[in-house]
Please model this.
Amino acid sequence: MAKPGVAEWANMPLKQQFPEVFLSRRGYTSHICVCRAGCTFHDSLPACLYVSEKGRQGMSEENSWLGRRVVAAGATLLAVGTLAWAAPALASSGGDPQATVVDDASTINWVTPDDAGGPPPLPDDMGENPRPGMDPVGAPEKRHGAAEGEVLAPPVKVDPECAPADDCVTLWVWAASMMVDPDITIRQMNAWRAQAAEKGACNAEGESIAGEPLVWSDSLAFAAQELAVELALGADPATLERLDGSGSVINGEGNTFFPNTHITGVNISNLTSIQGTLDAWYVQSEAYWYGPQSTVYYTTGDYANAVSNEAKAVGMASVMLSNQEVYTVCLFGDAAPEEVDGTTYAPMTGGAIYQGVNVQKDKLIFELVAPETLTVGEPVELGINASTTLTGNAVGRAAGVAIDPTELFEQATVQVVQDGKVVGEIAGGKLRALGGFVSGPATLQVVMADEVVASAEVEVVAVPTALGESATIISMVPSGDTFELPQTMSVLWTGGATTDEPVTWEALTDEQLAMLKSREGGSFEVAGTVETLGEDVTVKVTVLPAVPVYADMPPAQEIWVGGTPALPETLTVTWSNGDVSDEPVAWDELDTTVAGTLAATGTIEGLSSPVTAQVTVKPLEVASVEGQDVELDIASGEMNADALFVALPATAAVSWSDGSVTEEPIAWSALPGEQEAALSSRGGAAFTLSGVVGETGVAASAKIKVEAATMVSAEAVPAQEVWVGGAPELPGTVAVTWSNGDVTDEPVSWGAADTSQPGALEVQGAVEGLADPVVAAVEVRAPEAVSAGDGGPLAASVPSGSSAADALAALPQTVPVSWSDGSVTEEPVAWAEPDAEQLAALSSREGGTVEVQGAVGDTGQAVSATVEVAPAEPVSAQAPQAQEVWVGGAPELPGTVAVTWSNGDVTDEPVSWGAADTSQPGALEVQGAVEGLADPVVAAVEVRAPEAVSAGDGGPLAASVPSGSSAADALAALPQTVPVSWSDGSVTEEPVAWAEPDAEQLAALSSREGGTVEVQGAVGDTGQAVSATVEVAPAEPVSAQAPQAQEVWVGGAPELPGTVAVTWSNGDVTDEPVSWGAADTSQPGALEVQGAVEGLADPVVAAVEVRAPEAVSAGDGGPLAASVPSGSSAADALAALPQTVPVSWSDGSVTEEPVAWAEPDAEQLAALSSREGGTVEVQGAVGDTGQAVSATVEVAPAEPVSAQAPQAQEVWVGGAPELPGTVAVTWSNGDVTDEPVSWGAADTSQPGALEVQGAVEGLADPVVAAVDVKAPEAVSAELSDVEAQTLEVEPGAVPDLPATVQVSWSDGQTSEESVVWDVPSAEEFVAGTDVKISGEVETTQQSVEVTVHVKDEEPAPAPQAEPDSDKDAAAATDTKTGEDDAASQAAASPTKPGAAAEQADQGDSTPEPDAAATQDDKADQAATAPQPQPAAPEKSHATDVTSSGERQQAGLPAWVIATLAGLGAAFVAAVAFVVSKRRRVEDDEPIGKHAAPKNK
Model:
């Protein structure tokens, strides 16, 4: 096979390049250093190729090769992606490439890791996991982007570690986080550190590498990820200056990530493999093991950072950018920031990320990408490119790093500029006009922090289409308020955009300006034009009537108690429009019965709040008091305190300074204890009781005199009994009752009492001051014997065998006797002789008791006594017969001997024999003991010596011992005695002395497999020999060494060893396999996992502490908040809050846990319902984690939502509805308040239903008041002139009736309305009669009636001969006719209600001419006027009627008719003149007010 060239070999598949690569069985990284012979890089040193293999299950053959390195001693480390680098490297080495490549692996010099100083193997026991709960297997590498049909999870947004400064912009970079397994990473680095310490490596300063293990830090890992993205964006890897200008990561004074953590080292790699990166760093270890071959690596290299003594914590992150470049950063710190800075980061996970990086604006160049044409209101798609000013970088170290433009736009404002002015902006993804906007060229500019960072030239288009709102605007303005016309109106543009465009309005007229301030309000319209659209618009303005706002308060005043203040009838009121007027006030009734300062309240119509007036009510003063001092004499005990107060006067007459007299109560002081006691004092007393008259302060007094009490009776002494000769015990005092009710013990003197004879006796006693004696009844009695022998039990003790006489003599001969009078005497006893049974008991060997009876003197009492008989005792024993025994034999001695007792009995009693020493031949005495016998019993024995015959005849001698037994143990296991047969036929056990085992025998005793050992022995001094077999049992396992205790998280699996050290029963120790049982780590606590070793009875126990992760913090995702409207319930507020929060656990995991929010308290509930809104802080408990969180509930202010319409009302046409000044307004939080309302004008000129609208501030919809306008109806009609109701006329004269009557309407108003009378003919007015005349009111068709009284006839006056009589008559007639004309004109007026009254008023205002002149002028006119002809009888308002009103009588001569007519006319004219004149003078009625009578 031809040898491949260098280039060919370098590109071969890996298995052909290295066919014998060693793979670790544990699956961890293995390292092989391959040195090719004859291939040199420098100074004939071999070139070494380091190969790393990651033998992970499930990874392809090619993907398992993750990193490759070549080290030429002293040269710079090369980092490449494939072995293709080897070809040019080897070719440039100066040697023959073909000569350096071999065709089989046998010629390759494989160097083991230990020989080469390679990475240390990972031990079986990896030690404590630095990140408990992490899966040590790790995760596959993540790739950026999705394959076809693959759906990637949304990227995780990772904020920068701090907010950007004012001169910074946050770039959001899309990337893929390559999963760095903390477990694998830190275990390898800690193995490096331990290996360096073991080898005694030193750093550049000569300090030994300590090898202390690192801890993993999530905070450092997060910082490493952000730094990796910054490097991709152009950060200098040499200086590590941050892009936000905050300084270097390794500035020595803390760092820009963590203020209290010093970054001791930073490792950076561009390799696509995390494991390959670690391998590359480890290669640098040679500088430590064999000296500083590379100064760079020895002092500041990657390996140096990893094993540095300063480093205590590590975090590592690797990201792949959108351009497929990888940046791996590893940060080493002198502490974990979690511990010193309080940072809290969740463990990092692989996958898509969205990393934010703060970059100074002066390091960035922005390019705005925009379409050529933009239309107002239509969506605009903009792009923005950013590149750095750093050398050789265009948004990163290489082109193609994806940055999210959306986030950039969120930090900027995009403006539209025309002619140097900002006329529009891009908002919500659309172009929005700001005013002055025209179609044409424009500049789009991106503004960040008031600085334009990018721009683009575009063409903008905008065309208005229509108004975006109604062309008619309804505006309701309270009178006096400032009225402003809207300056803009909504205009719709092409593309659906809406803008506010300016409106040009007509100027308000003076009349409109005045109406805006009018108290009565009003309405008007204003026209305007939207210039952008050219469309006319209108504002309809309703000025709401003004309402009273406040009133000036009246001055304060003073009155006496009970007086009435003089309050003003009107007050000066200021209205909402600024008007000021005097308005009537209705004052509430004021209670002036109590002195003090009062506030009188009054109500002014329309004023929402009452008015007040300060009134000071002064109290009256006391002039004098009578009846307040009294004297009272009472007997002791006659009355108690309550009765005394009833007897005292309750009131006193008080005269006041205003002259009034009242009865005022007397408040008597309480009785002190001594005075209350004085009321019942036996010796009497006198005291004065004080009091106060009402509230006057005048003192009252009562002088009380109590008379002394006297004795009334004594309590009887209880009857008693005494013995003959005894003295009764009579009391020295007796209870005496006094006249005041007292009962006292008083001394009594008793007379002599004779008790020498039994019987009844009365003893008398005297009490000083008590008239009757005190009597005590005494019964005298003789004493009797009550009992005998009460001094204790009667007894005696005698020995067994005593006689009856001995027993009775031992008993007491007298006993104490108790008598009924309490005395005790000693009396003799006569004891009865014992009977046969009692005599037998006295002789019993066992002893016992005997009861004996006795009679006590002549008292009639009997006693009994107990005789205790003591048991008999042994006195002597009979010795047994003498005998012979062999040496060592035991004599056969009797078990009992004959014993003689103290009572004479002889019995066989057991004997206990002492030891018989038969070890020597000869004579022997053996002593025995009998219980109770003082002297021993002696037996004579002769001892003879026997001879040994044989030994060990009991069978083979053997023993069994466990393997590992010592010689002493084996010999001790053998029988220590053997049976020996003697000449006397006996067999005894004799001791054996066994011989010590030899070396072979000792080896057999320690064999784990067991065996047999033969041992010889000598039997005592018998001269006999024996042998025995020792069976050695195989050894067994007796114990196993428990593995080291360990800790696991709940749900984790403990790492238990496959073998344990087993100790055997023979002392051997071997490693034996162990089978472990299941470990239930589902619950925290101490756990013992049992393992089984074959042959071992007891299980092997591994102690495992299962730890439950503890909650470290909760709610770290940001402030917890919610917003609810005012009036929300507690349940609504709590429901609006997050129901779960993220909880960080001590094992690094983060879970969502439920929150139990605390029920709001009363104050918080009030805030939820507050109309003004506010904030409520709510506390919550997070599940059962023990963590607490707080949240802020923003309560939005309530808004008015509706108003209660006032009650519907009715008004008459022309009336004004009485609408309330306030209405009940319901707010969105449920509150109901009275709010002021401004009502619009109510047009009540026409009857019908009417709605009056009112405006409440803040309420969108108007308040509507329903008003029913009703037309009034006529109720009654009456004559206006009282005198007209009883008119008097001359016979045949027609009365002058009123032309109008007063009509009363249903609205309470009255008016004068025209009436048409149906007047009878003159002949119906007959003298002395009453004539009823009916009429009808023209406007209402009501009927009216008047009664006219016709006077009695008087003689007719003589005809007047004066030539002027005809003229006067004519004048009178003419006057009457004038009145009729006026009445006719009034009757012909319109029929509108009130028209007649209006005409009458106009008539009243006309100046009245001189009465005489008027009559003369009319008389002249009447003289020249033609005489009218009679008219046909009809109802008519005609003014041409005959002066007499008579019908022409047929058949009368003409001259008669003329004469009668002349007389009648003269009479009527005279009466009319008089009546008319009187009415003008008395009633001031104008001529022409009454309607003319109807003609018949």
Notes: Residues 1454-1482 form the longest helix (29 residues). The chain is about 15% helix and 40% strand. The chain has a mean pLDDT of 76. The radius of gyration is 71 Å.
